[in-house]
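Worked example

This section walks through a single chain of length 60. The input is the sequence exactly as stored; nothing has been trimmed or padded.
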Amino acid sequence: MELHCDTCARVRIFEKPACADHPRATCPDRACTACGAAIVVAPVIMLIDRRPRVILRRAA
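Given that input, the structure is written out below as tokens.
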């Protein structure tokens, strides 16, 4: 994957580094193959509306 590296100030190839501290098999982060600078990718956070739903019923 090619991304812009701030350290190199150029477009470089980024790869997934191997890491043992992440719960999945691979890290979501990427590392520049030229200088080793890392890009930390934050997980997507879903906001859920936790208010109780109001159910409207017709009067009988």
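What to look for: The mean pLDDT is 77.
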